[in-house]
Design brief:
This protein is 38% helix and 25% strand. It has 210 residues and is of the alpha+beta class. The chain folds into 2 domains: 66 residues, lambda repressor-like DNA-binding domains (434 Repressor (Amino-terminal Domain)); 129 residues, Endonuclease Chain A (Endonuclease, Chain A), CATH 3.30.870. It has an 8-stranded mixed sheet, sandwiched between helices. It has a two-stranded antiparallel ribbon with strand order 1-2. The model has no long low-confidence stretch (mean pLDDT 91).
Length: 210
């Protein structure tokens, strides 16, 4: 299993503090410090499994002799919190700004805690653009960030493009496949950008609606 030195190295790759790792793993900051600082510390197997899962979800690969940040990965997130875990990955990937593209999105399905996470992402200077179904004019963000896809081409499983990653939501949001590959993400982004100017902007809200 992983060592304290590997945990420190993995945190360094992701630019995480112990506090951030503690929040993501559900462990205590002091507990992580003890594992990292004391080679004789023997954590429970379950504790190490939790840490490996958190790091693996964020693109870290452990080997018997070290740690590496994977350039190309396919990860599967499953469970009720899969979408929140994906948004957390978006937050970490776009720390220095950028753009997130939501292909076939529907803000009506977004839960309150997911809205809060999206706001955190936007607070980093990240911009959103969303392609929604024709006739759906419900928005949570500025209306100029949305355009409408004809219903016959709308897929109810969301795709999210960010950084060098593409996340495909399946199984009603309980399963998400994240592909980390620069070429793949570039192709997905190019398709989105090709469609964007051809899609219909949302109608302006009437004074009554406002």
């Amino acid at each position: 299993m992983i060592t304290g030195a590997q945990i420190r190295a993995a945190r360094a790759f992701l630019d995480w503090t112990r506090e951030e790792l503690a929040k993501k793993s559900g462990l205590t900051t002091d507990g992580i410090k003890r594992i990292e600082s004391n080679p004789d510390q023997r954590p429970h197997q379950k504790t190490l499994e939790i840490l490996v899962e958190v790091f693996t979800d964020n693109g870290i690969d452990f080997s018997p002799n070290g740690v590496r940040l994977t350039d190309e990965t396919v990860r599967i997130l499953e469970g009720e919190n899969a979408y929140m875990r994906m948004l957390d990955d978006v937050l970490q990937t776009t720390k220095k700004g950028g753009e997130v593209l939501f292909f076939c999105s529907d803000d009506r399905a977004t839960r309150p805690n997911e809205i809060d996470m999206e706001q955190m992402i936007r607070n980093n200077g990240v911009h959103f653009r969303c392609l929604v179904e024709e006739g759906n004019d419900f928005t949570r963000w500025p209306r100029n960030e949305y355009r409408q896809i004809p219903s016959e081409y709308f897929n109810h499983d969301l795709q999210v493009i960010y950084g060098n990653k593409v996340a495909q939501v399946i199984a009603g949001g309980k399963k998400i496949m994240i592909v980390t590959n620069t070429s793949f993400a570039t192709t997905a982004r190019n398709i989105f950008n090709m469609l964007w100017p051809q899609m219909r902007p949302l109608p302006k809200k009437s004074k009554k609606d406002e």
